[in-house]
Amino acid sequence: YGGSRTFCCFSLAMVEQCLRGEELRARHQAALLKLRKKALQEKARAELAWLGHQKHCLENLQDSKGASAMAAKQRKILTELKQEQVEIQHLQNVYRAAHRERKLLLKQQREILMMQHSTAQLQEKLHHL
Hints:
Layout: H1 2-60, H2 64-128
Helix pairs in contact: 1-2
């Protein structure tokens, strides 16, 4: 009986440690996706600014073909940015759902271990009686 209680407490501690690790991984993943989103936005903003400058210069030179090419490149960059943002949002949703599932499994495991611990304690009390 004593050995099973020790094992139960050890297992419970491991589940608690796994839960803390899961929370930490979820925070790291969220932070990485947030940084990726910010980097994409900054990159797009810089590229759009550069193309806007080039477009303005071409307009001043009255190069309508060049200016329209720059406008097309700007639209392409905006489209790619939106696609990347959609992908990041999808990844965030997937990671969030997977995190909730893992967390739920760990909590269920903790509840099972706590029930086993309670049962072992009751059996030990019955054994002493």
